[in-house]
Amino acid sequence: MTRAQVKLLTRQGCGLCTQMYERLAVLAAELGFDLSSIDVDAAAAAGETALRAEFGDRLPVVLLDGREHSYWNLDEERLRADITNR
Questions:
Q1: What is the Cα–Cα distance from 20 to 72, expressed in whole angstroms?
Q2: 60 domain residue, yes or no
Q3: Is 35:64 a contact under the CB 8 Å cutoff?
Q4: For the CA atoms of 52, 72, 26, 15, what is the dihedral angle to 10 degrees?
Q5: Domain containing 12 — which CATH number?
Q6: pLDDT tens digits for 32-86?
Q7: Helices in 1-86 by DSSP H: which ranges?
Q8: Quick check: is 56 in a domain?
Q9: Whole-angstrom Cα distance, residue 86 to residue 68?
């Protein structure tokens, strides 16, 4: 089975985004998923505008295997269950 892919959508200066990334990093080590982050404004400046258009008004956003999982606040209990049961 492949490892779960968790992406955190962020933007520069977002304190909540930083806090969520730090918590996700701890969970990644514990639960064994791959974690990455994407700055939606930097992606838009590089020509990839879709993420900012869809998610830019509710950052941070957690994507699990490419699908929206939670936003603004980490639903840790649900994330644990979804990764364990995938």
A1: 9
A2: yes
A3: no
A4: 80
A5: 3.40.30.10
A6: 999 999 999 999 999 999 999 999 999 999 999 999 999 999 999 999 999 999 8
A7: 15-31, 40-45, 50-55, 76-84
A8: yes
A9: 15
**Tokens read off for 16:** 């909540």
What would the two tokens of residue 56 be?
A: 């830019």
Counting every residue written for the chain, the total comes to 86
Domain encompassing residue 60: 6-85
Rounded to 5 degrees, φ, ψ at 62 are: -100, 125
pLDDT digits (tens, 9 = 90+) for 10-46: 999 999 999 999 999 999 999 999 999 999 999 999 9
Quick check: is 28 in a domain? yes
pTM above 0.85, yes or no: yes
